[in-house]
Amino acid sequence: MASRQLIIPGGLLLGMGIGMLFGETGAGMFIGIGLGMLISVLLTFSKGSSERNLEKRVAELEEKLKVEEEAS
Fold first, then answer.
1. Total of domains in the chain
2. Where in the sequence is the domain holding 14, given as residue range(s)?
3. What is the pLDDT of residues 38-59, one digit of tens each?
4. Angle between helices 7-21 and 25-46 (to 10 degrees)
5. CA distances (Å), 57 to each of 1, 5, 29, 62, in order?
6. Is the pTM of this model over 0.70?
């Protein structure tokens, strides 16, 4: 998940750099951050829904709790 968090600022910086080449830094930044957000959302959906991830995490925590209860 950490790499997904870098997509938005990465898009912003890339857009800024491209915008500077064309003399339109502000427009490049807006385009870059917009593309970064869209790519971030697409990656979220391609890796599976957050509901499935949540169910998996809940199951892991329930198992951990069960093991801790058996140990005590």
1. 1
2. 2-71
3. 998 888 776 666 677 778 889 9
4. 150
5. 14, 20, 36, 9
6. no
